[in-house]
Amino acid sequence: MKKKIIAANFKMNKTNRDIEEYFNTFVNNMNEFKGKGLFENIGLNSEAVFATPCTSLCESYKIIKPYGDFIKLSAQDIYFEKNGAYTGEISIDMIKDCGCEYAIVGHSERRRIFNETDETIAKKMSAVYSSEGVTPILCVGENKEVREKDMQYDFVKKQLKTDLEPLKTKSGKVYSLIIAYEPVWAIGTDLPIRPEDGDKMHRFIYDYVRSNYEVDELRIIYGGSVKESNIKELMDEPYINGVLVGGASLDPSVFLNIVRLSNA
Ligand code: PGA
Fold first, then answer.
1. What is the pLDDT of residue 170?
2. Is this structure's pTM higher than 0.90?
3. Residue 172 pLDDT grade (very low, low, confident, very high; cuts 50, 70, 90)
4. Helical pair 57-64 and 16-35, crossing angle rounded to 10 deg
5. Calpha distance 166→129 (Å, rounded)
6. Catalytic residue from among 47, 109, 142, 182
7. What mean pLDDT comes out for the span 132-160?
8. Beta bridge partners of 103
9. CA-CA distances (angstroms) from residue 212 to 19, 62, 140, 208?
10. Distances 252 to 68, 258, 261 between C-alpha atoms, Å
11. Quick one: which of 155, 135, 133, 125 has its CA closest to 143?
12. Active-site residue 182, yes or no?
């Protein structure tokens, strides 16, 4: 069975000290839920993935290691070169060193604020697949203007076509891929997509990827104003295999409840 991915993106929030407190609360609450019989099979059905800032990945790993079957780490971004004179960047080997099993690639904030192009994102995807043991969480999604013109399917298809180019040229490897559909207009706005509209886009992405690439394990997760109040209806949709949560992941009790409700 495909495990659901319930991912937290901390973005540029939290120092190491904050993160230590965060995980202590998360794990204590998790044990409390377990004590009440509210958390029994969650670890079998899903993974809680934390994209902490890169300054905290190694520290986070030390804390979460005992819960490694259920709690995983992700980088928020990576650079495509292996090493060299690239001031400020981090490589795949560096994040693996800190226990990351996932890497977010092409988040809309990287695209919008840092001018990241689909061509750069394709190079990052290629770098992830040239290395073993890291699954990319590739983010795609349209902005408000595109949605208003009802061009979102063409837009997302165009992103995928370039971003997934590396999957066309490599063969004989096992490819695990997570795509996060994150409509830009829904991120941080309190305006999540209607679950049925989200499901429609997820299905479109699923069909496009399945008919054009050989991906062994494909999960499509949704991001954009996910909260305790809407997680259940989103997860009830057949093509929504998990979520990527920004703002609502910053409070450990809220995020744990999102994880719990995603399995309810
Ligand atoms: P949000 O962010 O949950 O705060 O809308 C989601 C994201 O940017 O991944």
1. 57
2. yes
3. low
4. 20
5. 8
6. 182
7. 97
8. 75, 136
9. 40, 39, 17, 6
10. 17, 10, 14
11. 155
12. yes
